[in-house]
Amino acid sequence: xxxxKHRLAHHVAEDPIAAAIKRAEAATTGKILVTLASHTGPDxxxxxxxxxxxxxxxxxxxxxxxxxFVAPERREFAVxxxxxxxxxxxxRFWDELALxxxxxxxxTDLTQGLVFGIERVGRELATHFxxx
Length: 132
Hints:
By secondary structure, this protein is of the alpha/beta class. It contains four helices and four strands, in the order E-H-E-H-E-E-H-H.
């Protein structure tokens, strides 16, 4: 699901993102959410963690939710994986994902960068937390 249907929604095309989430979640017990934010404070990562908790993503039974937290007006994003998916993949995966998404966003646009990230996370979720 894409959250943030307000003045920031024009920064992304919701349909391709929603379709990528639906495809990814069909193969896993994990949950993926994209949210748009306008005010994040000086550092986006603490704001992303706060949103993760506020959205109760940490309450998923298998601790395998992933939040794509985007501040489009600041041209920043963060990807937060819950404990189990983070433990399965390690910090290196998240660092490489952020770099690859940044490159995709620069070469195409924000929507395609998010779709790329969702698809990549979806493959890992399906591997480590398959939908039985």
